[in-house]
Structure formats: C-alpha cells, structure tokens
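User: I'm putting together notes for a lab meeting next week and I want to include a structural view of one of the chains we've been expressing. I don't have a solved structure, so I'd like a prediction I can at least talk through. The sequence is below, exactly as it appears in our construct file.
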Amino acid sequence: MPGSPDSAVSRRAFVVGAAAAAGSAALAGPLAGAASAAGFGWSDDGANYVVDTGAGLVFKVGKADGDLTSLVYKGTEYQGYGGKNSHIESGLGTSTVGIKQSGATILVSVAHGTLRHYYAARSGENNVYLWTHKADSSVSATRYILRVRAGLFPNDEPDSYTYTTSTIEASDVFAKSDGQTRSKHYSGRRAVDYDYIGWSGGGVGLWIVRSNHEKASGGPFYRSLLRHRSADGGGLYEILYYGENQTEAERYGLQGPYVIALTDGGAPSSALYHGTLTTPWADSLGMSGYVPDSGRGRVAGVGIAGRNAAYPYTVGLANSAAQYWGPARASDGYFSIPRVLPGTYTLTVYKGELAVYTGSVTVPAGATTTLNTITVPASNDPDNASAIWRIGAWNGTPAGFKNADLMTYAHPSDVRAASWTGNVVIGSGTETSAFPCYLWKDVNSGLLVHFRLTAAQAAAAHTLRIGVTTAYAGGRPRITVNDTWTSAIPSPPAQPGTRSLTVGSYRGNNHTFTYSVPASAWRTDTSQYNVLRIDVVSGSGTTGYLSAGTAIDAIDLLV
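Assistant: Thanks for the context. Below is the predicted structure for the 559-residue chain, given as structure tokens.
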C-alpha cells in the first residue's frame, strides 16, 4: 500500500527506485565488457587501502577497522559526517583487513570475530559491491550505513529532518514549524517497492542498490528506514535486520551484493538491480558463504486459481535460512522465483498483503521446480464470506481507511492528518474513508459504528470480524453492541514489541478477531440504528499515540 499523495510522489520519484522504473545510467554498467581501465588498481597509504576503479571513483577502506573512510567521485569527497565513517552497524572496531586483485576485480576483506564483510571493485565501473556474512548475533544488527557529507544533496523529504530540530517522539521524530513531521523512519516503501535508494543533484547521483534480501527478515512487505538527512549529513542504508517491527527471527549467512553506485545524475543501471544482477566474476573470490548461481535453483508456478482479479498477488518462499518472493502474473497467476538456495520452504500466496494460501516446496540446486496450478480455497479469502455490511477490504493492509496513505511517511500528529475521531454510519457511502486506519486506547477508543438490520437479521445471532495488521503494546479490540452486550477481552496475538504505528509501519502479523453476537443484542425496531462500539484494551502502553493501539484491515458483520 505505498501511500504518498501525488505531490510527494513527484518530489520523491528520483530518490526511490521501483522495480517498474528501469533507470538509465550514466555509468559503465556492471560488466560493460572492458577488462581494464586506465588507473585501475589499489595502493596502501599506511592507514587505508586505496582502490581506484579507473572510471572516476576512488574509495578507501580503513586497515584497522574495515570502515569505508573515503568515497571520492570525480574529485569530490562524499563520505562521512560528524567524524564518522561508513560501516556495518555503528562500526566494527578492531578488525583484520586484507586486499587482493584478481584480474579486473579488487576485493577488500574484513574479518571481525565471526563476521565477514567485503568490498569489491570492477575495472571501469563507478560501483562498490558489498557483501556481509553474519554468522551469529555477536553484532547486534545487520545494517550497512553509507554516511554522506552535508550540503551535497539538499532536500526536505519525509525521511529527513534537515530543516527542523523540534522533537515530538523519542529522539527521531521531528515536527516542522508548519506542522508537518519528518523522521528517518518515513521511507513510505516496503521491501518489494524499491530497487535503489539515494539522492541526485548537481550532476551526480549517489545510490545504494539493494540486495535480494534473502538473509533479511520480514518478507516482501517489511518496512524499515532507508535513508535520512539531518544538519550533519545524510545516510543511506542496506538493512537486513533492524530489530524493529520484526515478524521473523533473524537469518544468518552471506548477504549481497548490494551496491554503492555513482552516476552522472541518472538512476543506477537496471543491470545492478537484484533481479537482474549476476556476479560470475565473484564465484572464485573465496567469500565466506558465497553460493554461485550454479548452486541455486528456481521455483516456477504455472498459475494460481481462485484469485480476486482486483488485487495483486505475491508468492513468497521462506525458511529459517532464507526468504524470496515474486509477483504473480495478473492474467493467470504465473510466477517465477530464481536464484533460490537449496532447501525446503514454506510457500505463501498473498492477496495484497494477506496470506490466503500456504504450502511447501523443496528446491534442489541447479534445477527448476515446477508447480502445478495452485488453487486458493474460497474459504481462505475472508472477502468471500457473505456479509450484511463490510468496512474496508480484506487485503492485509489499512488501504482506503482514513489517514492510511499518510501514515507510511508521517507521524499521526502530522497537520495533514484528518481527525482521528468521528463515528461511522453504514450506508453513508463513506464507511471506509471515515473510519480511522489506526485505533489507540488514549486517542480514539470507543469509536461507534451505526447500522440498521432487517427484522430477519435482528432475529438471528451473527459473527462480527475485525481484521488487524499489527498492534502496539498489546492493543486489541473489545466490542459492545447497543450498550447491552459486551464481548470478552480477546487474547493478544503475537505482534512485534517495538514502535510501529508512529514510525511509518502497519506491518506486523495479520490477525482476525471474531465475536459471536447473540440475537438478544440487536434492536428489533428496524427503523432504529444498532450501535457497535469498538474499544482498544490493553494493560500496556503509555499515552497519546504511544498508548496501546492497532491497525485495521477490515471489519464486517456476517450474514
């Protein structure tokens, strides 16, 4: 549910690259054919290994700690701010760093305890290829941050706070004088939505092209910070495990390549995108955990039956070691997921972001596993159930609800947000757009839904369902009907324990609460409205937007 308004999209189109937007680049693409370039090589200045790609890019790696200490493109230094370098997490500290050249490739290797990190350069390319091998939790997060000097790429985007210092939450959410909010968390993008992140200005583009995230956690719809801007400088990220809104355990092993790409202002070459990039030149470099394409397999499905044509479908593969995903073709549901590590995976079919089918598939190396047509049972899609009324659609997201679009790149207190309070009338035509996408115990708990029933409907018991996409501090809905019947307090489903609703993410674990409402709860006068009250209950959370809360997927009353 990527969700910025048109004006924000136009402002940001050049900084976040979607898979559908194949960029043209002013650089020698990966493997443009030239075996060498004038000046290609490396040297040792005493403190750093200095690598010259021979194409305008020179970078340095510290010999003591493996930090990227310099990134000079066409004579301009881009790396660093506040006395800090670019590195894994917040820096590894004392490490063993080595370098070797193999023909048209230079590889810098960094060893720190059980972690291995690699920088590679190719002759004639303005790219730095990076791999990270994390074997265990001795390094707290799997994050590479490219720190960029201030003043080179001015901007005022949702994921920046260059022009404000007023903190409204923790130390990382800020408010401008006009009431708009800014934070490094507000990328507005899911993992599936982008291929690269960065900035362009002054005839230079600086980008990180993401990896395939096979060792990340959270699946295709995971949201995390991608970049930030402040008065000190900017940061671009490759984040595989951040410990925020994580729905899966951390995965270990070699991840990459992700690429630092410099261009003459254009987007990075689409040949660098994770779906097209291959690195046969790296097969013999000896990187820990490296698996060449010959040691991987592919999964292909001939189609998916039982789909709702109004929604995109995604197929995901996941086990404890790796994750992958790919789109299902709109016409017939065909999908193909390449370069999969051998193993047995849970296969999940998502309608939007809602899982509607799960199965299992075993992938051998060097072969394609072809699956016959997958049929999604009608009962697996909640939208197929007959309903007296329904608010929203069962797609695993708050799409269409009030403020839903804004919340992926702004704080709930943002001046652009519509009021979080206000009740809903079924039959008004604005049921979904008037219903807030998030409910909090301390903000808008007690929201009312008014609806009428026929005599026959009022004479029977009915099931009411509330679907949620995540919850903060154990927030979950308790319902009251006509002030005469109140449900039990439901048990909280498993959800991430970190901030979510205030840092641009509704993504947690989709869950459906069901309530059996007896016939005695309904009003028998068909001219009167029945009144459904929804309260958020929890013994946790603080106040305001950090009180217990939940994000809504859909609400319906079944026939």
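A couple of points you could mention at the meeting. The two ends are 29 Å apart (CA to CA). The CA atoms of residues 48 and 62 lie 4 Å apart.

User: Perfect, that's what I needed.
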